[in-house]
Amino acid sequence: MFPTEPAAINNGFGALLKNRDFMLLWMGQLLSQLGDKVFFVLMIALLANYPPLPGLAENSMYSILMVAFTLPAILLGSAGGLFVDRVSKKLVLVGANVIQALLTLLIAFSPRDFILFLILTFAISALAQFFAPAEQAAIPLLVRKENFMAANALYSSTMMGALIVGFAIGEPILSWAKTFLGTDYGQEAIVAGLYSLSALAFLLVNFKSEHKTLSDRTAFIHPWTDFKEGLRYLKKNRLVLNAMLQLTTLYCVFAALMVVSIRLAADFGLKQQQFGFFLAAAGVGMVLGAAMLGHWGDKFHHKPLPLIGFLVMAGVLAMFTFTHNLLLALTLCAFLGLGASLIGVPMQTLIQHQTPPTMYGKVFGFQNHAVNIALSAPLAITGPLTDALGLRTVLISMSFVVATVGIWAWKNTRRVLQDVI
C-alpha cells in the first residue's frame, strides 16, 4: 500500500526542523490557513452590516454568501493546478496571499453593498484554489524523499489544527480587534495581517530546484491540452488514481460527519452549536496519528496502513449507534481521526512519490478539485438522508461503505503493485 523503498536515514520531524526552507513553508501554510478560517468567521459576522436586497430574507443571504465562498473550489480546482505548472510556485504562494490581504482590506473601505461583498468573497476564495496545489507541489521541492512521510504528516496536522484552532479563536480574535483596533477596519486588518505574514514567510523560502520543474513548452500549450494530458496521466498511473480516490472517500466521510455531528450533539444533550466538540476530537486524533506517522513512519513501511485506517473508521461509525456516553463518543471521534491519518498521510506521500515534477500542478490541481467536490456532495445529501432514514441507518450505511471502499482499494492497489513490479 506504500510502495517505496525504506529510507536509509529517516529522522522524522527532526530532519524537518533542520530544513529552514520547509519550516518557512510550514509557517506560511499555518498562517494562511488560519487566515482562511478567521476570514470565514469574519464573512459571517460582517453580513449583519449589509442591508438585504429587496425580497431576500436573512437566511437566503447566508446561503448565497456560502455559495459565493464555496463555488470557486468547484469551478477552479483543476485550473489552479494547471496554472501552477506554468509559473513559479513561489510567485503563486506569495502573490495569492498578498492579493487576499489587499482584498480583505478593501472590504473594510468599500460601500456596504451586498453584491460587491459577494464579488470580493468569491475573489478571496478563488485565490485559495491556486494556493493549495502550489503549496502541495512545493513540498517535494524542499524535502528529501525519505522525509515525505514526516512532511505530509506535519502538513495534515497543520491543516486539521488550523481548522480546529481557526474556528475556535476566530470570534475572540475578531472581537478583540474590533475593540482595540476600531470598528471600521480592525477585524479586516487582523485577517489581512495573517495573509501578509504568510506571504512574508513564503517570500523567504529558497526554491533551489524549482526551475527544473518548470517546462518551457507549457507556455505554448493550450490549457485544455494540458488538462487532457493530466487526465491521461491519471488513467495511466492507476496507483496515483487509486490513492486519490481513497483521499476523496476520506474527505466525503469527514464532510458527512460535519452534518451528522449536529444531530449527535443533540442526542448527547449538547447544544447544536456545540457540534464542534466532535470535530475537534476527531482533529485531535488525526493530529496524534499524523505525529506518530511523521516520527515513526519508516517502522510501518510494510503495513497496510490505509486498510487499517478504513476499518478503524468503519468500526467507529458503527459503534456510534450503540454509544450513549459523551466521553466515550468523543474518544471514538479521536479514534476516527486516528484512522483518517492512516489513510491521508500515506496516500498523500504516495502521490508525491509517484508524480514526476512536471506533473505536480496538474495532479495536485485534480486532487484539490476532487476533494472540494467530495466535501460539497455529502454536505448536501447527508441531512435529508438523516431526516428520511434516521441517524442509526445513516451511520451503519456509512460504516459499510467505508469498509467496502477500504477493502476494495487494498485489493486493487495490490494488483497495481504487481503490474508495476
From TrEMBL:
Protein's cellular compartments: Cell membrane
Major facilitator superfamily (MFS) profile domain: residues covered: 238-421
Membrane topology classification: Multi-pass membrane protein
Pfam families: MFS_1
Location (main, coarse): membrane
Keywords: Cell membrane, Membrane, Transmembrane, Transmembrane helix, Transport
Membrane-crossing residue ranges in chain numbering: 24-48, 60-84, 91-109, 115-132, 153-177, 189-207, 239-262, 274-293, 305-322, 328-351, 389-410
PANTHER family: MACROLIDE-EFFLUX PROTEIN, MAJOR FACILITATOR SUPERFAMILY (MFS) PROFILE DOMAIN-CONTAINING PROTEIN
UniProt protein name: MFS transporter
Organism: Anabaena subtropica FACHB-260
